[in-house]
Amino acid sequence: MGAMGLRADVVTVHAVDGVVTLECQLESQNQIAILTCLAEQLDGVVAVVSHVSAPVDGSVPASSQWTAHGVSAEP
User: Fold this and answer.
1) How do residues 27-71 score in pLDDT, each as one tens digit?
2) In the chain, N or C terminus with fewer CB closer than 10 Å?
3) Is the pTM of this model over 0.70?
């Protein structure tokens, strides 16, 4: 997470049977995509459930998403 400028205690990560769930509030939409991509690249990860939000225009948080093998879909 250091590459994104985040402290280790900012993101909550749960992993069960290769499904990783991420929870946090970030500062930008770009950070959500980067964090999800990084999690997907870890050995043993089969899917990422993102409960990560960030302001879209500075005031409205983005919705959660689920990704598997690089394909995004609503939960």
Assistant:
1) 888 888 889 999 999 999 999 999 998 887 655 455 555 555 554
2) C
3) no
Q: At 66, which amino acid appears?
A: W
Spatial separation of the C-alpha atoms in residues 7 and 62, rounded to whole Å: 21
Q: Where are the beta strands (DSSP E) in the chain?
A: 12-16, 19-25, 47-53, 65-68, 71-73
Residue 36, classed as helix, strand or coil, is helix
CB distance 67 to 50 below 8 Å: yes
Neighbour tally for 65: CB within 10 Å: 17
